[in-house]
Amino acid sequence: MTETTQIPLKSKDFYRTIFNKYDRNKDGLISLNELIELIESREYEEDIPQYCVRKILKLHDYNEDQQLNFEEFHEMINNPDLQYVFGHYINRYINWIIPRRQHPSRTVTDGLYEEEYSCYPPAVGMIILSLIQVIIFCVDEATEHDSTRSATGPAAIVFIYEPSKRREVWRYITYMFVHIGIFHLLINLLVQVLLGIPLEMVHKWWRVLLVYSAGVLAGSLGTSIVDPTVKLAGASGGVYALVTAHIASIIMNWNEMSYPIAQLLLFLLVAISDIGTAIYNRYVLDINEHIGYAAHFAGALAGLLVGINVLRNLSVTRTERVIWWVSMVTFSVLMGVCVVWNLAWKSYFPREV
């Protein structure tokens, strides 16, 4: 989860430029207030209290004049024990202050997160998964016409989640390969590719596939408790996990991302409006659209919690570490409750066949 930031080796002239920038009164010394300003320029004000900054100053103030001359400043910046504090700042200084000819198209709106987009390794996870879902759909449709509308094809019979066949534990995951009708399939394919590939380009395909699978599993377990008689088909639990995985990525990379508030509001609006509409239609308007809202909600929650745990965090802060632990414990407890409920309270579910 945590990635160590390495300070690049540079000449003293390079560090002299940074020193001069924060020597506001140009007296050749970095005072305590100037050092605090330097550290807070990396948004550390909530993570490093002033007494810690004073301790950093004291450790490197060899002549004990409560200020740092350039030699003391240079040694402090290159102290390996303080790379967590200064390493990311120095790297950003290199990337932003010093022009780089190889990236003439950079704009001021680009963030550190946006720089991480890469096609290596290829973002193939969602594409391969989508191809498998298409192949299984075609097999069922070719075996018996319109079998995909009633989930009676050979693959659907084996893969669909059925409450009365909970002993066949693979069904808690494999129902994501079964779709009811071509429209259901196309919508899920479109959304998971559009949402999954951008995530894979930053976080790599195996992390995104792990989040997706967690959403699928949480969707079936959540549905088994909220709607114990409902069958499940489709990948909506995984798709909603991708939606909230974007939210998790925004939360954990807030300072490194361009326009995080706008992005967060957009994904929240998508998730809340769709799930809210399904619940309203089911319980207020009494419209049965065969939409597994419980799978949507559980998948979305799993995507958020697992996304916080497994997706890349470009610069870890103390607050983010707390969020990481809270999400891990919450997900583990919820999944444990669901598993124990399924194993121990058999009378709650339809009789197994």
TrEMBL record:
<dbReference type="InterPro" id="IPR035952">
    <property type="entry name" value="Rhomboid-like_sf"/>
</dbReference>
<feature type="active site" description="Nucleophile">
    <location>
        <position position="236"/>
    </location>
</feature>
<dbReference type="GO" id="GO:0004252">
    <property type="term" value="F:serine-type endopeptidase activity"/>
</dbReference>
<dbReference type="InterPro" id="IPR018247">
    <property type="entry name" value="EF_Hand_1_Ca_BS"/>
</dbReference>
<dbReference type="Pfam" id="PF13499">
    <property type="entry name" value="EF-hand_7"/>
</dbReference>
<keyword id="KW-0106">Calcium</keyword>
<feature type="active site">
    <location>
        <position position="296"/>
    </location>
</feature>
<comment type="similarity">
    <text>Belongs to the peptidase S54 family.</text>
</comment>
<dbReference type="InterPro" id="IPR017213">
    <property type="entry name" value="Peptidase_S54_rhomboid_met"/>
</dbReference>
<protein>
    <recommendedName>
        <fullName>EF-hand domain-containing protein</fullName>
    </recommendedName>
</protein>
<feature type="transmembrane region" description="Helical">
    <location>
        <begin position="172"/>
        <end position="197"/>
    </location>
</feature>
<keyword id="KW-1133">Transmembrane helix</keyword>
<dbReference type="Pfam" id="PF01694">
    <property type="entry name" value="Rhomboid"/>
</dbReference>
<dbReference type="GO" id="GO:0016020">
    <property type="term" value="C:membrane"/>
</dbReference>
<feature type="transmembrane region" description="Helical">
    <location>
        <begin position="264"/>
        <end position="285"/>
    </location>
</feature>
<feature type="transmembrane region" description="Helical">
    <location>
        <begin position="291"/>
        <end position="311"/>
    </location>
</feature>
<dbReference type="InterPro" id="IPR011992">
    <property type="entry name" value="EF-hand-dom_pair"/>
</dbReference>
<dbReference type="GO" id="GO:0005509">
    <property type="term" value="F:calcium ion binding"/>
</dbReference>
<dbReference type="InterPro" id="IPR051739">
    <property type="entry name" value="Rhomboid_IM_Serine_Proteases"/>
</dbReference>
<dbReference type="InterPro" id="IPR002048">
    <property type="entry name" value="EF_hand_dom"/>
</dbReference>
<feature type="domain" description="EF-hand">
    <location>
        <begin position="10"/>
        <end position="45"/>
    </location>
</feature>
<dbReference type="InterPro" id="IPR022764">
    <property type="entry name" value="Peptidase_S54_rhomboid_dom"/>
</dbReference>
<feature type="transmembrane region" description="Helical">
    <location>
        <begin position="323"/>
        <end position="344"/>
    </location>
</feature>
<keyword id="KW-0812">Transmembrane</keyword>
<keyword id="KW-0472">Membrane</keyword>
<feature type="transmembrane region" description="Helical">
    <location>
        <begin position="232"/>
        <end position="252"/>
    </location>
</feature>
